[in-house]
Amino acid sequence: MPPSSSRRFLFLALLSAHLAAPAAAAAATGTGDAAAMQALRRELAPPGWGPGVDHCAWRGVTCSPAAAGGPGAVTAIELPRRGLRGDFSAAGALPALTRLDLSANSLRGGVPGSLGSLRRLEFLDLSMNLLTGPIPAALSGASSLRFLNLSNNALSGGIPGELGRLGKLQELQISGNNLTGLLPSWLAGLPALRVLSAYENSLSGAIPPGLGLSSELQVLNLHSNALEGPIPSSLFQLGNLQVLILTLNRLNGSIPDGIGRCRGLSNVRIGDNRLSGAIPASIGDATSLTYFEANTNDLSGGIPTQFARCANLTLLNLAYNRLAGEVPEVLGELRNLQELIVSGNGLGGEFPRAVLRCRNLSKLDLSYNSFHGELPEDICNNGSRMQFLFLDHNGFSGGIPTGIGGCTRLLALQLGSNNLGGQIPAEIGKVKSLQIALNLSFNHLVGTLPRELGRLDKLVTLDLSSNEISGQIPGDMRGMLSLIEVNLSNNRLSGAIPAFGPFQKSAASSFSGNAKLCGDPLDVDCGSIYGSNYGMDHRRISYRVALAVVGSCVLIFSLVSLVVALFMWRERQEKEAEVNKAEAGEVVVAAPEVVASTVFIESLQQAIDFQSCVKATYKDANELGNGAFSTSYKAVMPSGMVVCVKKLKSVDRTVTHQQTKMIRELERLAHINHKNLVRPIGYVIYDDCALLLHHHMPNGTLLQLLHNDSNADGEKQKPDWPRLLSIAIDVAEGLAFLHQVATIHLDICSGNIYLDAHYNALLGEVEISKLLDPSKGTASISAVAGSFGYIPPEYAYTMQVTVPGNVYSYGVVLLEILTSKLPVEEEFGEGVDLVKWVHTAPARGETPEQIMDPRLSTVSFAWRRQMLAVLKVAMLCTERAPAKRPRMKKVVEMLQEAKNS
Q1: pLDDT digit string (tens) for 688-743?
Q2: How far apart are CA 880 and CA 873, in angstroms?
Q3: Half-sphere exposure (CA, 13 Å, Cβ side) for 723?
Q4: Which end of the chain is less crowded, N or C, counting CB atoms within 10 A of the terminal residue's CB?
Q5: Which cellular component terms (GO) are annotated to the entry (predicted)?
Q6: How far apart are the first and last CA of the chain?
Q7: H or E segment at 298?
Q8: What integer best gives the mean pLDDT of the chain?
């Protein structure tokens, strides 16, 4: 072979080997990936994985394009919120992996150090699991990491120094763990760091000096640790910071003047520290500022007028510092301000009328200061959105302005411990929204109690103690139906305390200090104070009242008799009209041909007539309820038996033509032996309709019990907490059983909870979970989320009905029981449902007892104690993060504990 030919051959051979190398490597990688993916499938058993060998087709898996001679390499595994548990260390054997998201599952054990071998890994999210142990130093080997989230686990130990090698890291989130030790100094040297979140740990020491100088740090959240030292001025040096949250630490020093360099700074929360000095005037340069909280520090000086330049400022909380001077008038220019909280300072001057120009102001807290002078008459001008007005512990004088009646949205009014005089204005009765508290104690109020107080039917706490109020307690105060706590002590009240539950259940100290007051709960007999004439006058008045009552009863009886007579006459006329119509030839709708029908229970086969079931669905008068997937009707059989007929709303040929599969599912459910599940007794198929037959439940549904004045038989309902608690436990046990047999309910709501003759609760529409679940391929329906108001928040982006989603829906039912409110009501406000209304109660200043239905919670302390325990369970069930919600088996245990408490 000539030399040139030899060289050409050698070149082609080398070129072929070079081109074949990637293919061989890819083939080897594909083979290795297959083994790792099969190991992950065995350990985690994710839904949608296997049993096929093509792991690239599994749900949540992304592969690179297939190379010659083998499958593509696995580049991403994204399985958030799948209920996974088990060992996932096999993921460390996927060398091409760039994204791994296993957040919001139930993973236990430690963070696998094997993940550090993934040189291409850029995104790792293991947040919201149950991981324990230290953060492995081996993670530093994943040198391409840009996003690392280990938040909301139970990790312990310190932050490994080796992680400082992750030079590309942009987001480090390790909050909500049990981490200890110092914040490492290498954090200040990460050039790409934008987000550092390490809140709710036990970290100590100082915030690393220089943090923010080497990177474009935008978010720093370190609240709820034990950090000390100053706030580094380096955080503001480059002007990139947007969010700074350092509350609940031990930081000292002053607020750096450079804070104004951050024009995009929107959120500053530095409360509950030991900061001192003045608030820098440069704060006005942070024109994007929305929230500024610096409460509970040792700040001094005045409130900077420069805050007025922050046009977006929504919340300004400077409470419990050593601020002096007056509230700047220019703060009235803050049109977006909703909360101004300056309590617990040394502020003075007259009432800052200028802040009333803030049209969105909902909370004004000037308490525990030295304000003086009279309160403005227009304290709640037209269109006021004021909900919380705290002016107590000041030196305000004059009278309570009659303009207080314009505070139509007010929830709490605190005017105690001032120098207010005059009478309580009758206009106070116009503030029907007052719910949390009305406190006028320790003033110099005189005159009698206005009868209009009785209009405050939502008020829970009333304190009028230590004034000079005289006269009798008006009987109209019985209209305060929600009242739990009352204090009228140390006044000049006289006469008998009206017979009213909240009064008699109060301690005697609530009425003490009134020399001429008598009756329960005071141990003072009215006769001993007013003599026998009082008793005679009282009997004379009672006699007159009795005569008036008897006369009224006679009149009412006469009117009712007349109405009943008219009703019977009209009913007779309608029946005669129907007879005449029948004689003239009534048009009868032909019943459709029944394609298939079955009764599963042999003893009922002779009692059920299928044509009667079909005809019952033609009349609106027979309708019992309308759910997300079916409409229920009451059907009376010729035998006299009453049956509940459910007409499925979304049925296609898969159901009506594949009868064998449908019958098999229904028969299986018909023989489920659980006392808290509604079981089908048969079905009817005609045309394109499917009817499911059930036993009739004489006491209707939980929805009717909670929100109707009468039950299915027209009998008046009385609030009964033991019965409601028993119903809640019944439903929880039924749902726990469903989850045990791997069945997820599609529509948990109070309208699908049925009550039998003894008020035992049965969860309905269980079979619809099998017949209409699109994942089972048995039918196609447009929405499977459930009823409005019960849908878990994660459904919006997962579009999957899950076990944690069922727990959330059940939690809504618990809240519905506790509050007697529907899941969605106008009173909550736009965009707010029952869950959000309850969870945000602390922010509104409401206690748990103020959320619950007072008709139940005020009956006895035992009921109230059990309701508070159940409220805790409901709060857990409706946690926004699915991983934080308990399993239904645990819910049953907690409810049983509440019942036995």
Answers
A1: 677 888 888 888 889 989 887 554 444 445 568 999 999 999 999 999 888 876 67
A2: 14
A3: 15
A4: N
A5: membrane
A6: 99
A7: strand 298-301
A8: 83
Exposed / middle / buried, residue 644 (Cβ in 10 Å: 0-12, 13-18, 19+): buried
Q: Is the peptide bond before 854 cis (omega within 30 degrees of 0)?
A: no
SS3 479: helix
pLDDT of residue 246: 96
Q: What ranges in 714-860 are assigned the alpha helix state H?
A: 721-740, 766-771, 795-798, 803-819, 834-839, 848-851, 854-857
The b/e string for 229-251 (b: 16+ C-beta within 10 A; e otherwise) is eebbbbbbbbbbbbbbbbbbbeb
**Which pair of structure tokens corresponds to residue 480?**
């305060």
Closest CA to 117 of 139, 137, 147: 139
Burial of 705 (0-12, 13-18, 19+ CB in 10 A): buried
d(C-alpha 705, C-alpha 755), whole Å: 9
Residue 898 dihedral angles phi and psi, to the nearest 5° = -65, -40
* Closest CA relative to residue 747, chosen from 677, 801, 814: 801
Q: Return the bridge partners of 630, or none.
A: 648
User: Could you give the CA distance from residue 65 to residue 76 in angstroms, rounded to a whole number?
Assistant: 13
760 CA to centre of own chain: 28
Amino acid at 842: P
Q: Which residues contact 513 (CB under 8 A, 6 or more apart)?
A: 465, 489, 490, 491
State residue 464's pLDDT score: 96
DSSP β-ladder status, 171-173 and 195-197: parallel
What span, in angstroms and rounded, lies between the C-alpha atoms of 134 and 111?
8
CB 175 within 8 A of CB 152: yes
- Which is nearest to 123 in space by CA: 141, 104, 149? 149
Rounded CA-CA distance 435/459 in Å is 4
**Contact in structure between 886 and 897 (CB atoms under 8 Å):** no
Q: Which residues contact 330 (CB under 8 A, 6 or more apart)?
A: 305, 308, 354
Task: Please give the Cα distance from 71 to 63 (Å, whole number).
Answer: 8
Catalytic residue list = 747
* pTM across the whole model: 0.62
Query: What pLDDT digit, counting tens, does each position of 397-429 carry?
Result: 999 999 999 888 898 899 999 999 999 999 999
Locate tokens 């617990």: which residue? 344
Question: Please, what is the Cα angle at 863 between 412 and 805, to 5 degrees?
Answer: 80
**What mean pLDDT is predicted for residues 521-526?**
87
Q: What is the identity of the amino acid at 291?
A: Y
| More confident position, 178 or 772 | 178
The mean pLDDT of 219-247, rounded to a whole number, is 94
Q: Give CA–CA dist 749/789, Å, rounded.
A: 9
